[in-house]
Design goal:
By secondary structure, the protein is an alpha+beta fold. The protein is built from eleven helices and 27 strands. Its EC number is 3.4.21.107.
Length: 495
């Protein structure tokens, strides 16, 4: 019996020790969690706000606008009251100064980036302004001049002349910002004066409507008047310029967008040096490589940028061709068209870069000397080819949900195509077909199939047969509409 009693005592002793250990472990865990939370979210943002607020400014713009012209057409012409009403209007004009030009004011935000007075804001804040006034946190006001603007990223660089060095802030590495990181926004919301709001990074790499967009999405409150103000990380570095909000009522609903600092710094450096932007220009029209396009081209992965046209420019001079898939640019892999556009735009004008393309199943690298995007002359015209002689009567054929016929001079004129363009005109698209779902319509022109030119119905049929023999599930068509090209992959029917 004694061993049982001893065993019982030992069991009770072990249970007590275990409980004590668990209590100690829980206390330690609580301390660790409190420490982590303290680091993750400071008890107060006041020290940080006090440190960086002197560099944040309110911006007031003044624009001269024409006066009102008064109501017109209130009394029908020929009415017996017409003369009376005209005299009434004339008398009011003599006593009304509303016809004289007036000044209109607008409010925004900005921040100082150097002690000698360079200020960053949004282009839309100061666009068209006759006079720009900068109000500092201290209440001091200075008149600013515009150094340069970039409507593509909605960034403007201003300059003020102060008696001494100004407090300023520095840009941080926006690529290091993570979804969930704490941020604070500063500015002049709704013209109420200096204000601070806090939140987190809600998303990264957002695109709105611009070619070079790279927005940080945040739920830190951004309202009208915050435009041009800075978005700070917890180190006090600017990681974005508050630019836009998504809202049904014009107020903050927790979806705000700040242009990433790594985009802004490149723009600001060029504006400071040249007074304008100087972006690289490759000179190609491109589209994303989708899954069906990749299958039609026999590609393993749906990545890269597919060239749909090569007008006169650097790419044409270097030997890039329609149908090439750009895999890498200047040593960096190309994921999609948006990434390529940004890579090219961030490259220096005149630089020689190596562009790796996939052409007819083989990879090759081509050296291209970049031009300047801002110097590109609008829409370049496609290269001209000699018009072949033909005396065959036009054929009509239905294939892949399309009814097509070879182009005639009358069709070229009707569709706005150049006299040198060859291909098949789409005269009808079967509703409910894959071609219809992918946006093909009557009036489109098919110029290539399977990355080979097509001029006749026989050409198109042979491309279909070749694709089937190669085991392809779809056929890649190059389609032009009003001169704009794009590739479309259509599934081949089983025989």
């Amino acid at each position: 019996m004694q061993p049982k009693a001893v065993a019982k005592v030992q069991t009770n002793s072990f249970s007590t020790a275990t409980k004590a250990a668990l209590v100690g472990l829980m206390a330690l865990t609580l301390v660790v969690l409190q420490t982590v939370m303290a680091y993750a979210k400071p008890e107060s943002l006041a020290p940080l706000a006090e440190k960086i607020s002197p560099s944040v400014v309110n911006i007031t713009t003044s624009t001269l606008v024409e006066g009102r012209t008064g109501p017109r057409g209130i009394v029908p012409e020929g009415s017996p009251f017409e003369d009376f009403f005209r005299e009434f209007q004339d008398r009011n004009r003599e006593n009304d100064d509303s016809q004289t030009p007036r000044r209109s004011s607008a409010l925004g935000s900005g921040f100082v980036i150097s002690e000698d007075g360079f200020v960053v804001t949004n282009n839309h804040v100061i666009e068209g302004a006759d006079e720009i006034t900068i109000e500092f946190f201290s209440g001091e006001e200075l008149v600013a001049k515009v150094i340069g603007t970039d409507p593509n990223t909605d960034i403007a660089l201003l300059k003020v002349e102060a008696d001494g060095p100004l407090p300023f802030v520095s840009f941080g590495d926006s690529d290091m910002s993570r979804v969930g990181d704490w941020v604070i926004a500063m500015g002049n919301p709704l013209g109420q004066g200096f204000s601070v709001s806090a939140g987190i990074v809600s998303a990264r790499n957002r695109a709105l409507s611009g070619t070079y967009d790279d927005y940080i999405q945040t739920d830190a409150a951004i309202n009208r008047g915050n435009s041009g103000g800075p978005l700070f990380n917890m180190d006090g570095d600017v990681i974005g310029v508050n630019t836009a909000i998504l809202s049904p009522n014009g107020g903050s609903i927790g979806i705000g967008f700040s242009m990433a600092a790594n985009v802004v710094t490149r723009v600001v450096d060029q504006l400071k040096e040249f007074g304008e932007t100087r972006r690289g220009w490759l000179g190609v029209r491109i589209q994303d490589v989708t899954e069906d396009v990749a299958d039609a081209m026999g590609l393993e992965n749906a990545t890269g940028a597919l060239i749909t046209d090569v007008p006169d420019g650097p790419a044409k001079d270097a030997g890039l061709e329609t149908g090439d898939v750009i895999l890498s640019f200047d040593g960096a892999e190309v994921e999609d068209t948006r990434g390529l556009v940004r890579q090219v735009g961030n490259s220096p004008v005149g630089a020689t870069v190596r562009v790796t393309v996939l052409r007819e199943g083989k990879s090759q690298t081509i050296a291209v000397v970049l031009g300047r995007r801002e110097d590109a002359n609008g829409e370049a015209q496609p290269a001209q080819e000699e018009e072949p002689e033909t005396s065959e009567a036009p054929e009509v054929s239905s294939l892949l949900g399309l009814t097509v016929t070879p182009l005639t001079d009358e069709m070229r004129e009707e569709l706005g195509a150049s006299a040198q363009m060859e291909g098949l005109a789409v005269t009808n698209v079967e509703e409910g077909s894959e071609a219809f779902e992918k946006g093909l319509r009557a009036g489109d022109i098919v110029t290539e199939a399977g990355q080979q030119k097509v001029k006749t119905i026989a050409d198109l049929n042979s491309r279909v047969d070749a694709a089937r023999e190669a085991g392809r599930k779809s056929l890649l068509l190059l389609v032009r509409r009003a001169g704009d090209p794009r590739f479309v992959a259509l599934t081949l029917e089983e025989q």
